[in-house]
Amino acid sequence: MTAVVAPIVLGAAVVGLWELFVKANDIKPYLLPAPSAIWAQFRRSFDLILDAAWVTGLNALVGLLVGLVLGLLAALVAARSRIADGMLGPIAAAMNAIPIIALAPLLNTMFSATSSVPRRMVVAIVVFFPVFVNTARGLRQVSPVQRELMRSLNAGPGAFARMVQLPGALPYFFTGFRLASSLAIIAAVVAEYFGGRQNGLGSRIASAAASSGYPRAWAFVIAACLIGILVYLVAGLLEWLATPWRRAGSAAGRRRRPPAVPALAAAPATAPAMAMAPATGVAPATDDASAPWTASRDG
Amino acid sequence: MTSTTPPPVPALSPTAAGPAGAPPAVEVPAVEVRGVDQVFPVAGGGQTVALSGIDLTVAPGEFVSLIGPSGCGKSTLLRVVGDLLTPTRGEVRVFGQEAGEARRAQTYGIAFQQAGLLEWRTVAGNIELPLQVHGVKKKERRERARELLELVGLADFAGHWPAQLSGGMQQRVAIARALAERPRLLLLDEPFGALDEMTRERMQAELARIRHETGTTVILVTHSIPEAVFLSDRVAVMSPRPGRITQLIEVDLPGRLGPPGESGDAPSTDDAPSADDVREQAAFFAAVTAVREALRAGGPT
Ligand SMILES: Nc1ncnc2c1ncn2[C@@H]1O[C@H](COP(=O)(O)OP(=O)(O)O)[C@@H](O)[C@H]1O
Ligand SMILES: [Mg+2]
């Protein structure tokens, strides 16, 4: 119960203080608009926001699915052969090191100006890494006891994969999936800052900010946050449904949530901050603007 | 899965089942280990001699314990018997078959020190695993799992997840799983090692009963002298590295639950002497002393 109530109370308090702070200090809207002003814009532009959210959401979803499938397949291949693991591992690590978002302008020039493909590709590439790394780790995680058990039963590789390896990797896969689901929204929004069709949330944020419609820009940011939270919750729900043994009462089941690959935590934090700067064009706004992303990522 | 049909299960036939008291001398041993050495390479170029010149013969229906200081090669010997390790030298036969054949024919069931349950399967699902691997139909699996849960006293826990069970309960599930295919040989590697003393004694009594009811041959690795004495027909005492069997000690405890048809074969296990009675007789203490002295003679522990 407190798990639900506490964040709501905290959120309400923060919004309240924000409103007070802006009103009391007479903060300029380009620095920080009041929540009430953002809310007014949110209601006024609701239809536009809904359309833009749909476009960005679909890009994120398609990219997410493609990235998931590719990450999963690559992990299966890597788990099957040492050679493939030796090749894919370093490539994945190298991919993680480059800010994928930086590819967006290049991909945009490869396709027609109205194509959604480059943005979806950016999302898919961003999603691929956490899914691949976490799933591959899970597939390697079979305990020696279980290995010997299956050998004592003379189980073939098929039965071994189906009954031991894949179910054991499921929690790891979902750790990657949860990370990827938040990254997908971030990537889908930020990729829009670099051109392409101007109909998604990212484009709307950029153009609202460029025409000094700061509360309006914030209203779109809020929409992006809401999608992020929604996707994260859906990922959590799927995990909950797919791994019933991990929610069964005892604390023992819970303790075993696999740790996410740590390198990933840094990746999303840099991407939006870096991309926000040219979009808003106003230096002081940058730090604040990236805050909602941080919130939606940690869910 | 397997092309070799396992020989008929002699589960409930006593050792000397021959017509009109034929001598049991010619029968095929359950396990025969001849001149087994096991050498492991060590990182940096050296090697560990884990087993050296092991000879051991276990009769069908017999209960043999392997006891010795830790690191003396007990688990290694058990793995060699189960064909989970190929010995560097020597030969292992299980019911007359070469160890690999015996493994492929599902002759033995095995339980390790860690229960090694699949946490994503329910208790019943874990017990069904061996049957599922070998293509037994669902209905039959369910039925067998129910029987076994009854046998290990977990009838009410079929639908639980392993994480919801205590260590002792998990270990009982692992033993039930090892019994699922009615193996003729049970290999147990310190199955009660992680349990508290009370649970441990209860589990030992249960194992004695299960053995009495099924007639399986058992090899048990343990580092507990009372446990070895309480359960075994013979205790194989091993020396520190390189592991050898230094003594084989026969244990005869009057009134104890033995193999089916032997000593304790009252029609119901109810009127058999209690486990505590068995543990309190002079013969028990004498055997404990004998094993302890054999361990001491083997070298520092
Ligand atoms: N797979 C292995 N590789 C290398 N050394 C091993 C391996 N398995 C066991 N050993 C070594 O063999 C010796 C006997 O081990 P083990 O059979 O596990 O002893 P025990 O079960 O009696 O405690 C130990 O010194 C151990 O380090
Ligand atoms: Mg051991």
Automatic annotation (TrEMBL), chain B:
Keyword Membrane listed? The answer is no
Which terms are listed as keywords in the entry?
A: ATP-binding, Nucleotide-binding, Transport
Gene3D superfamilies listed in its UniProt record: P-loop containing nucleotide triphosphate hydrolases
Entries under CDD domains matching the protein: ABC_NrtD_SsuB_transporters
One Pfam annotation, family name?
Answer: ABC_tran
Region: Disordered, residue numbers: 1-24, 253-279
Ranges for domain ABC transporter: 33-265
Q: Which chain regions cross the lipid bilayer?
A: none
Q: What is this protein called?
A: ABC transporter ATP-binding protein
Q: Which organism is it from?
A: Frankia nepalensis
